Amino acid sequence: MKKEVMGLVALLVVLAGGSVADVDRMAVAEKLYDTYCVSCHGEDLDGNGEVAELLDPYPRNFNKYQFVIAYKDRFKNSLLHGVAGSAMPPWKNVLSEDQIEMLVEYIEMKIVDDAPVTAYKRLRADMPKPGDAERLDYRGSGALLEVGDVERGYEAYHKHCTSCHGKLANGKGPNAIALGHAMPRNLINKHFLNQPEITDERIYRSILLGVAGAPMPAHDHLSDQVILDLIAFIRSNVEEAN
Hints:
Blueprint: H1 2-15, H2 25-36, H3 38-41, H4 65-70, H5 72-81, H6 97-112, H7 150-160, H8 162-165, H9 176-179, H10 190-193, H11 200-209, H12 224-241
């Protein structure tokens, strides 16, 4: 009870524009989370809040500590500006930047400190360009990359991706439910995929390296040409969805 009262007092101080220098930041952050986040992301930060089942896609499961480590830099931007194509709203007109920083710190403290194994920062991989050498050209044939082809991408998608993302690319493939939380990405969600930050390079990395803390595995067995073709197909699908 005392902790709840102190947390409430701290929250009122912050919302009133006061300093939290003499107040436990984590108590404030916890109260902020309980006030603004718990209904979607849940008391255990697992994305299973009271309204989660009504949302598509489901709220982020922060218990996937690999995701917290790999994509921490995205949290602040998502809190500030929301996530297009999802139920995550922008909070920049509700919470101050310091309050948002506290929420990021709170999530990291709650999840990463209890992680069962060490998680590492995400690998980086630059997206190749047409004319570059093929990454998997081990025999030295001299094969050079071409611009991604939609038709080839369609064939590659149906060979490698439909079991999770579905034949309609809506994230509802036959394996989707078994994967649990989070579900596969809806690849015809134009509001999400048309965001400026969802670049071809980001899609390339997600396919090549997988997505930390999500069911999306690495596909480094695919050639760069196949990945470029897949990106072309995904972009074409989004254009048709418009």
